[in-house]
Write a structure and sequence with these properties.
Radius of gyration: 28 Å
Strand content: 5-15%
Distance between the termini: 92 Å
Largest sheet: 6 strands, parallel
Number of helices: 22
CATH class of the largest domain: Alpha Beta
Structural class: alpha/beta
Shape: elongated
Strand order of the largest sheet: 1-3-4-5-2-6
Bound molecules: adenosine-5'-triphosphate, magnesium ion
CATH architecture of the largest domain: 3-Layer(aba) Sandwich
Number of domains: 4
CATH topology of the largest domain: Rossmann fold
Order of helices and strands: HHHHHHHEHEHEHHEHEHEHHHHHHHHEEH
Number of strands: 8
CATH superfamily of the largest domain: P-loop containing nucleotide triphosphate hydrolases
Helix content: 40-55%
Length: 465
């Protein structure tokens, strides 16, 4: 006995087709599918629709091809019913199929009365049945400035070019989450499901999967036997995973998973490699090997490295009522346009110097005030021992150095230097300069100043003793 009626199969196939092509079936495609389910031949359909048999065969072939891509398995004239029923069964353990059918029958009732593309978009925006969000963990930011280029670029990659795995990277406090909050508001109406999760409680990959499935499937059941890809293919989901660095071990090379977390690699690989219409965004202050690898080997994955906000940070200074505007550029350049550093420094200048930027700048090493030092120490305390040795050495140098130059001047082995530099780069603590056939490295300015200042304090103490 057939599990699904013809109209149901048609509705599911149409949703899959729309998920893959962005368009619903036209009348001819609808007829080809229905008549095929009734056991009619291409010639029968050609006679009924007044097209040639060749044209019907070609149109049918394209239809099966699109459905094959959407389902991730080969679909043809003879297995269409069985394939759709199998797909239906794979999801039927969860409530998702209910909302899918409701959602789908709405589409189907409206079908034919709308322009297909417009209908699809309106459906995302207007129908409660087709849009769900779990943004309860999203932090609130009162102000947001600049980053227009980054926002437009990300929107283009996600919405127009359908990139599936995107990493937004950068040192702590550079504005990854703030940017992503803006991005979510800009693009969320293109999706059926939008979920934001911070990984700061270090969930295992299975725990995270269950959370995502509970949201998308609206059920408390375990979903081990249901493939995530089916959901991501059937629904357009936007999944944002913030604070990825909480999965990585400290005092180890950057991006090294804690014990028991390695299966995240497979998860990210699946997201990047499988065909689906969803997007996962990772936010991290450390890059890792798998993310780098996918970025170079997979055309649907890329990373965006965030740097300072530049002169846009003037608005942060304005907002804190700072004075002596002619000295703001100097302040911004000391902190390299880092929004968090500038925000907390602006508050300090307001409290202790009545907003007078020049008075603050005239104080010796005032820019390394305690609130900044705490943030820098947090960044440095998780380095591996060989990274610590390297960064302390590099911070003392007035010019950038290449790997052979470091090797000549220190007792460090080539492998310690290479691994250490790679790891420090994955934490965005080194700047690179490529010149005269050599790549040279130096520590980013503020961290360099900090390391030099603690080294000179400890030298002074040794001399005084
Ligand atoms: N574009 C911006 N405009 C105004 N303020 C910003 C902007 N970007 C970041 N900030 C401010 O800088 C601070 C740090 O930003 P955010 O939390 O986004 O950094 P992050 O890179 O996510 O840091 P972490 O790595 O610690 O998660 C916030 O207080 C935020 O208000
Ligand atoms: Mg953040």
């Amino acid at each position: 006995m057939d599990v699904l009626g013809r109209q149901e199969i048609l509705a599911i196939a149409d949703d899959l087709f729309a998920s893959h092509t962005g368009k619903h079936f036209n009348d001819l495609q609808k007829k080809i599918l229905l008549r095929t389910l009734e056991g009619k031949t291409y010639l029968d359909i050609a006679n009924e629709t007044h097209h040639t048999e060749k044209y019907i065969k070609e149109t049918g072939g394209k239809l099966w091809k699109s459905l094959s891509k959407a389902l991730g398995e080969k679909v043809n004239k003879s297995n269409i019913r069985a394939t759709i029923e199998r797909f239906h069964n794979s999801l039927s353990k969860s409530n998702i199929i209910q909302s899918f059918q409701i959602h789908n029958s709405n589409i189907w009732q409206d079908y034919g009365t709308h322009n297909n593309d417009a209908h699809l978009n309106n459906n995302h925006q207007a129908s409660n049945a087709s849009y769900y969000e779990d943004l309860s963990d999203v932090p609130v930011y009162e102000n947001f400035y600049g980053r227009e280029k980054e926002l437009n670029f990300l929107e283009q990659k996600i919405i127009t070019e359908n990139y599936r795995l995107i990493s937004i990277l950068g040192i702590n406090g550079i504005g990854k989450t703030a940017l992503t909050v803006q991005l979510i508001n800009k693009i969320k109406h293109h999706f059926n499901y939008v979920i934001y999760k911070s990984l700061s409680s270090s969930p295992t990959c299975t725990e995270l999967h269950n959370k995502i499935f509970q949201f998308i499937g609206n059920s408390k059941k375990q979903f081990n036997n249901v493939s995530l890809s089916s959901y991501l293919r059937q629904y357009r989901c936007l999944i944002i995973l913030d604070d990825l660095e909480f999965l990585f071990a400290s005092e180890n090379y950057a991006g090294t998973y804690k014990d028991g977390y390695k299966d995240y690699d497979l998860f990210f690989k699946t997201i990047a490699n499988n065909h689906h219409q969803s997007c996962v965004i990772l936010l991290s202050s450390q890059n890792n090997r798998q993310i780098e690898l996918l970025e170079t080997s997979n055309s649907s994955s890329f990373s965006l490295l965030l740097t300072g906000l530049g002169t846009k940070t003037k608005q942060i200074l304005h907002q804190n009522n700072l004075q002596q505007e002619e000295h703001w550029d100097k302040l911004i350049s000391i902190y390299n346009g880092h929004p968090l550093y500038l925000e907390i420094t602006a508050k300090l200048i307001q409290y202790l110097f009545l907003g007078k930027v020049l008075v603050f700048l005239n104080e010796e090493e005032s820019f390394l005030h305690n609130d900044i030092v705490i943030l820098i120490q947090e960044t440095l305390k998780i380095l591996s021992p060989s990274e610590t040795r390297l960064i302390e050495y590099l911070a003392q140098q007035s010019n950038p150095l290449s790997i052979p130059e470091i090797k000549n001047k220190t007792s460090l082995s080539t492998s310690v230097i290479i691994n250490g530099i790679q790891s420090l780069k994955r934490r965005f603590l080194l700047e690179t300069e490529a010149k005269n056939d050599h790549v040279r490295f130096q520590v980013i300015p503020l961290i360099k100043q900090y390391i030099k200042s603690i080294q000179s304090t400890s030298n002074k103490q040794t001399n005084d003793e």
